[in-house]
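Comment thread on ticket #2218

A.B. wrote:
> Attaching the input chain for the structure job we discussed in standup.
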Amino acid sequence: MKTLESERLIMTMYTLDDAEGLYAYACNPNVGPHAGWAPHKDVEESREIISTLFMPCEAWAIRLKESGKLIGTISLEPDKYRPDSNSREMGYSLAEDQWGKGVMTEAAKCVLDFAFGELGLDQVGICTSLVNKRSQRVIEKCGFKYEGTIRRAYRIWDGTTRDSMVFSMLKDEWKK
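C.D. wrote:
> Ran it. Output below, let me know if you need it in another format.
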């Protein structure tokens, strides 16, 4: 995957050197639990996440152009609900000090441009939990269409099971 740029952001593929930057925001107890994952315990755990999850799926580290500071993650992973179609599933997380600034919407729109324009995808899916209102707002601002809610769709880090709100966007719906 290539480096992506938007007005305020640069998105680069994760490397193991990004572990401290990831840990700096992923250790916050207000970040991960909304998305269903536990706050990172230490830099080594962040390094392991990069190695086993982010690098194989080619996740981007979201950085502020101005400072280069790592502030979030965004990816296009295999679409678990559409494995036999030309579709990927978007996932993301963002440092709490960047919430409410339009950063994730900017990053997501940049990735959607790449997904439809350069990868030639037919569709991009995205899922979120009922409790993750901030993610729902990003999904809405990007123009995804709500498909439905799958009840008790996945188990989160604390052992509870959550419903999953499922959204998608078709290539011909992008930028309309």
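A.B. wrote:
> Thanks. Noting for the ticket: The chain has a mean pLDDT of 94.
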